[in-house]
Amino acid sequence: MPEIHQWLRERARVNEFTTTPVPFAELDGWSFAADTGDLVHRSGGFFRIRGLHVTRASGPVTQWSQPIIDQPEIGVLGMLAKKIDGVLCLLVQAKIEPGNINMLQLSPTVQATRSNFLRLHGGATTRYLEYFTEPGRGRVLADVLHSEQGGSFYRKRNRNIIVETDEDVPVHDDYRSLSVGQIQALLREDNMVNMDARTVLSCLPAPERSPRRTRRPRAAGDHRDPELAQRRQEPLLTHRPAHPRKAAGAGWFTGEGTAPAVEVPRDAGGVGCGATRFCYVRSAAAGRTAAAARVCFVAAAKAGPSRSA
Fold this sequence. Notes:
Blueprint: H1 2-14, E1 30-32, E2 39-41, E3 48-55, E4 63-70, E5 74-84, E6 87-96, E7 104-107, E8 110-112, H2 114-117, H3 130-133, E9 139-147, E10 153-154, E11 157-164, E12 175-179, H4 180-186, H5 195-201, H6 226-231, E13 261-264, E14 276-279, E15 282-285, E16 288-291
């Protein structure tokens, strides 16, 4: 997907900035509270760094002390979805964060704490926030609270939301509509899709189940797209359990009854949104249903990259 990589390089060039470690005493707006010793912001918002002592009844370490981030507010991690030429695409952001090893990574449409979107920092408004806070702006595909990393944050939560809209959404230069398939391909690249985007993507609804269809045998080399022919040979699962369980219910890779099929969009030659069909099938072994899966790509190339979500 050279066009996407070129866009990311361009955004990194335009938004270039530097980070410099400085002593706490030189932080603007941050200080240690006289009563608690916590590191706090003068606005009272954002977060505070405080000490925590932990004890447990068993384990190799039964007690320890550590600093922890205390942020008693719920952040918004929102992904705006829209069907473009019949293919579901997500609006992602080329977001620069000072702690990223490569500065810029793909993030959700909205990735903001409450303090951020209330503008306690005095900065700009959060783009596209209205799609996740105002009712009636779209169809909610997912809306669930997830805990932040408990080893670093104290009882922090994020609201993971996916909203599908039919509106014509103006796309800022730092944003781009990518198909789910394009994002899936980018997930395989190091330091490309950030942790928050991965968390939201995990909330995408499971595909609807449909009746099993008999596939026509395809002759070797009978592929219009060489790239797709190569990808068809790639295993969907890099690890297969030694003793697959009999399926107890519906799922992506297991289930009794019909085999689920879902239309999943993917990049067609790196430009625009294509369409890929993931077909999940099962195989019977020794009288038991074993979970097996394979991918059959059926691509439909779409013309040019879209500029609206």
